[in-house]
Write a structure and sequence with these properties.
alpha/beta; single chain; about 25% helix; D-Maltodextrin-Binding Protein, domain 2
Length: about 425
């Protein structure tokens, strides 16, 4: 693979504002006091808990999908799939809503060329995070056609009547992805979504700055409580990721727990972390680790693969390291693409999803964003051999079987989500 240029932003990087692009072009936008945990005890057991049960749907509660409780979402009256055999909308401007730099602009240009006979343009708008995106989509102020989202928001999208059910006739390239994503637990029969990329959450570091093999520790997560690395490390600016990691570090496996005792213990451990190692809270580890601003950080696998392109001149990317549980029993996730009900070009939007799922297009996008697509043609060996992933970061490759044993961060009942937010505010107030 040829060297690619450095990029200033990542999938998760928070920016000051989102901005609309000019049609056919790209515009990238640029403390709580300690309190008892009470509400979680009355909440329904979270999906993914040891019982495997999800709260029953009600007017005030979301139905929650989990691997133990897969969900086939309803199709609301008046929101049926579009008819088969329709031509893409001519002269259309396809409006895409996504994170900054979470899609290769060259791939979007390729899509415009592919549909040049229809005089297609693409308008790309960005959001800072998924809650912001959901709020903007709900307002309906801009008729976005396609968005990229995490599965822990799908119930709100369906119940809010915000996304269109898919007509599979337009998306034959679904056959290029892993079987797991042709009938995912969060959207049985892929009625509303198609997969985009997959990732694990682990630890990244530079071996020349931290010569210790972190992955060889009996409990690698303990590094965040190691005072000898004080001031050199960071955790993700994401409440679910940090609380989940703390639960795993302390021997738990339910990273979606509603148990007040478990959440209280996680809070206490996180406050202890602050006192011992003073970690930064950031999502820029993909640049900070390569550039030596940080020695080590909690991070996503895709960000470490991207990190090879941010090494200072004269520093070999082979010093980069990544660890997540090698048996796959760590936090794991994926994002998906979906067609928004408020969009003006539903046929073209279906064609765009199919375009992105194609093997060659998906590989080209992978080579730029650094996040692995669940392609059947990819194996851990070929990803390294073909240069998508350097050998020293082979541990960042996500394997299909890990989705059977890993721990996804699920949608939470609102009252439980409030408990997580309270813990997070207290942690960040001391960071």
């Amino acid at each position: 693979m040829a060297d690619r240029p450095r990029r200033p932003l990542s999938r998760r990087r928070l920016l000051q504002a989102s901005a609309l692009a000019v049609p056919g072009a790209w515009a990238l936008s640029a403390c709580a006091r300690e309190q008892p945990l009470g509400g979680a005890s009355s909440a329904a057991t979270s999906a993914g808990a040891s019982s495997g049960a999800a709260p029953a749907p009600s007017p005030t509660a979301l139905q929650i999908a989990s691997p133990q409780n897969p969900v086939k979402w309803p199709i609301n009256p008046g929101n049926e799939p579009i008819a088969s055999g329709l031509e893409p909308e001519a002269g259309a401007t396809l409006r895409i809503y996504n994170y900054p730099d979470y899609l290769d602009k060259a791939v979007v240009k390729d899509f415009q060329k592919e549909y040049a006979e229809y005089d297609v343009k693409v308008e790309y708008s960005t959001f800072n995070d998924y809650p912001e995106a959901l709020t903007k989509i709900r307002t309906g102020g801009v008729p976005y056609d396609v968005t990229f989202m995490g599965y822990n928001f799908i119930a709100r999208l369906v119940y809010g009547d915000l996304i269109r059910p898919l007509n599979h006739d337009y998306i034959p390239n679904i056959q290029d992805v892993w079987q797991e994503f042709q009938n995912p637990w969060y959207d049985l029969e892929w009625q509303y979504t198609v997969p985009y990329v997959i990732f694990t959450t682990g630890i990244g570091w530079r071996s020349d700055l931290i010569p210790e093999d972190i992955g060889a520790r009996p409990n690698p997560y303990d590094v965040f409580w190691d005072s000898k690395y004080a001031g050199e490390i960071a955790v993700l600016d994401d409440d679910r990721e940090v609380i989940g990691m703390t639960i795993l570090r302390d021997g738990g496996t339910d990273v979606n727990t509603a148990d007040p005792a478990v959440l209280g213990a996680a809070r206490d451990a996180m406050l202890e972390m602050l006192s011992l190692s003073q970690p930064r809270v950031t999502i820029t580890g993909y640049t900070d680790i390569p550039e030596g601003v940080l020695s080590l950080s909690q991070c996503w696998s895709g960000d470490m693969i991207t990190g090879q392109y941010y090494m200072p001149e004269g520093v070999d990317p082979s010093v980069l390291r990544y660890w997540s549980p090698p048996d796959g029993r760590g936090m794991i996730g994926n994002d998906y693409m979906t067609v928004l009900k408020g969009g003006e070009n539903p046929v073209l939007a279906h064609h765009f999803l199919n375009f992105m799922l194609g093997n060659d297009v998906s590989l080209k996008n992978f080579s730029w964003v650094g996040y692995q697509p669940p392609l059947r043609s990819l194996t851990p060996e070929t990803m390294v051999a073909d240069g998508y992933v350097p050998e020293n970061l082979a541990s960042a490759v996500v394997k299909p079987e890990w989705f059977q044993v890993g721990y996804p961060l699920l949608e939470l009942p609102p009252e439980v989500e409030g408990e997580y937010q309270a813990i997070w505010q207290q942690f960040k107030a001391g960071a």
